[in-house]
Amino acid sequence: MDTNDKNNDKLDQLNFFKTDNSDEKLTTNQGLKIRNNQDSLKDGERGATLLEDFILREKITHFDHERIPERIVHARGSGAHGVFKLSKNMQEFTKAKLFTDLEKETPVFVRFSTVAGSRGSTDLARDVRGFAIKFYTDEGNYDLVGNNIPVFFIQDAMKFPDLVHAVKPEPDNEIPQAASAHDTFWDFISLMPESMHMIMWLMSDRALPRSYRMMEGFGVHSFRFINSEGSAFFVKFHLKPKLGVHSVAWPEAQKISGADPDFHRRDLWEAIESGAFPEWDLGVQIVPEENEFDFDFDLLDPTKIIPEETVPVEIMGTLTLNRNPDNFFAETEQIAFHPGHLIPGIDFTNDPLLQGRLFSYTDTQLSRLGSPNFHEIPINKSVPTVHNNQRDGHMRQQIAKGKVSYEPNSMGGGCPYQAMMSEGGFDTYGERISGTKIRARSESFVEHYSQAKLFYNSQSEPEKTHLQKALVFELSKVTIPAIRERMVSQLNFINKDLAKIVAEKVGVEVKTLEQPNGSIPADADPEALQSEERETSLNSSDALSMKNTVKDSVESRIIAFLVADGCNAARVSELKSKLESKGATVQFVAPEMAPVKSDDGTELTPKHSISSTMSVCFDAVYVAAGSASTQQWLQPDYKNSVVEFVNEAYRHCKAVFFDKETDALFDKTDLTDFHSEDPAVISVKKNDSDDSFITAIASHRVWDFEKHRNGFIK
Ligand code: HDD
């Protein structure tokens, strides 16, 4: 699909608000042209500044007020415009035109985020990622405000402020930033058995995405679809990235946070600028209302998934991001999502976490954006014009004509009048309910460990190792041994080996918890929750392991070409063209930023010098052919850096290609110990072809060789 110039109803609406300073004169906010933007108005050249300097006052006043509160959670984020194109008419299940009109391309804005960190924090925190989509439909805005993890820490919104207080920096010293590895988080979590399933996801590499473009998205809660006959279906939303689900490793994440804290933001921006538009299949798992109780968990419990083996995901269409915002603040920062922004054909369920969210989102915009008129900010405006009797308030934009701002009225001809359902009027699903008011948790929400087990069991060996190491890292930062101990005792309910491994490394013993706190009723036996009946019917689910993800493309992967004077220009150009023809990006890394003179005199312009980047920022490394260039790399100024560059890529299981006449450098690296079956060590000596390199890059990493590559197995 082509791109930035392509317009739609939402982009046309936004265009109306855009300004362009080209060829324009500087003005005040009142449109007055400014003659001198260098000096304030003074009483003589050396005199005091005059209060009457309205130009200075206006400029400074605006500056003084240009910050707004950051989001209370999900403060750090990046967004992009795009479209959703339906491929399957879902009218059997929903009347939402978004999911029934095959002709329509619905404009969207998507914002990705981390949760715990501040607006300026690193992208590579170990954290959940937000995945919020605003669909600008012809029936009004529909927001799907999800995450890259399909379950949540808590079952009831009542606990949300506690969760967020626990994970945010500790209140006395505001440490640590954008990290869950601290006392208060694990204190809370170890007392909340319901969080264990989410903790398995959070400690997995899912919490360290390679790119926003390579993450799944989930609506988390069960929502409802309602068709035109009024029949309802439970649905769970899924977004599956066409590029597959890929992650970086934790030691890399920590280094990237220093080398390029904007790694995900930059990646999204650059991919879209270069025309490599990120795409996801959007699908739903559908459960008819009458099957609500067919599962060994409660569909209303947001700490549970419906395994894809039990209910497959039906793909409805494709979400494509194809345009970067023009202004970060105006668009990405001011966009306001809310799970309660609905359209006919979609409705909520009684999930108690979702119910609380329905209050929180509008409420938070009032302090964040400062006015109930936040819906009038261009990025938040619906495509259909708003007609109602709401009036006034800070920063009101709409000029509502006439005397009438009430209903019923005769003076306005009764307008704006209520829409019938046949005219698109929204009608809440008539769920039959009868109950007694009660502040309690349902028995059906009580079991917390079986899906945590399912997740852990479904991981490949390298994924399990990473998860164990993540827990060890996090709990090693916990200063209070009793919290570490309580946490490993929780892990013991999930997997005894996992608990043992972590306990040993964090210096505590696994103890039987006498009384897991939280939502387990006082009379429940924690061991009984582990009994056979409490196991999920599934032992393992392929969909939960990233090992089984798509690995067929090098599109938008960034390959470091280590080039130095005298390198083989023909080989560099040949491999570069092959990679680029498959959509990969090649960046030259040279000893210095000066152009490199290759063997035939062609100049290669480096994007980085070896001292200004690290291989953690790349997907693969190619060492360009040539004995002269190899000798230059081995000069004392560059040798340590280039060897570390290669070794680090190797340690993190990336494809590394040593071309002809590079042995002298190869011999200095850890690759000399490589396993003969390792498919991502590419060398002309092994008769590997360029295609082997391309296949290795597409497979992302050879995690299975991680232990060999790090010297644990010879
Ligand atoms: Fe939330 C922001 C996702 C539970 C209250 N949430 C926010 C964003 C995402 C989510 C992606 C960022 C939106 C953006 O980019 O602007 N939140 C979730 C998911 C949840 C969840 C998937 C559970 C399934 N959230 C949740 C609960 C509450 C909130 C239970 C409160 C009761 N969330 C908020 C908030 C935020 C927010 C405080 C902060 C900024 C904003 O809303 O606009 O209202």
TrEMBL record:
- Transmembrane segment boundaries: none
State the UniProt keywords alphabetically.
Answer: Heme, Hydrogen peroxide, Iron, Metal-binding, Oxidoreductase, Peroxidase
State the CDD domains in the record. GATase1_catalase
Q: Which reaction does it catalyse?
A: 2 H2O2 = O2 + 2 H2O
The protein's matches in Gene3D superfamilies, at most eight in alphabetical order, are given as: 1.20.1370.20, 3.40.50.880, Catalase core domain (2.40.180.10)
What are its cofactors? heme
Which stretches make up the Catalase core domain?
A: 27-415
- Region Disordered: what ranges? 516-543
**Listed EC numbers:** 1.11.1.6
Q: Name one GO molecular function term.
A: catalase activity
Which is one Pfam family of this protein?
Catalase
In terms of superkingdom, the source organism counts as Bacteria
Class of enzymatic activity (EC top level):
oxidoreductase
Role played: Decomposes hydrogen peroxide into water and oxygen; serves to protect cells from the toxic effects of hydrogen peroxide.
Similarity field: Belongs to the catalase family. HPII subfamily.
Q: What is this protein called?
A: Catalase
Organism source for this protein? Chryseobacterium caseinilyticum
